[in-house]
Design goal:
The chain contains two helices and no strands. It is mainly α. The protein has one domain. α1 packs antiparallel against α2. It is elongated, with a radius of gyration of 16 Å.
């Protein structure tokens, strides 16, 4: 259950960074932080999610569906 909560929180953080980058892109303010900072955070978060999912499957915390239909 903890893995599911952690992945859900990371997904929310990823979406938050996506919208934060969108707001910076739409706003034409030279004093705002660079958009690449938030896009980089989003990419790093998705890499952490994939690594966490692989680790959870490898250790048996998450059991994949044995029948794909």
């Amino acid at each position: 259950m903890l893995i599911k909560i952690l992945v859900g929180g990371l997904l929310l953080f990823m979406v938050f960074n996506l919208f934060k980058a969108m707001m910076i892109m739409l706003k034409d303010d030279p004093d705002s932080p660079p958009m690449s900072k938030f896009i980089g955070r989003r990419v790093l978060t998705s890499a952490i999610i994939v690594g966490l999912m692989l680790l959870a499957v490898a250790t048996g915390l998450i059991v994949p569906n044995p029948t794909p239909h």
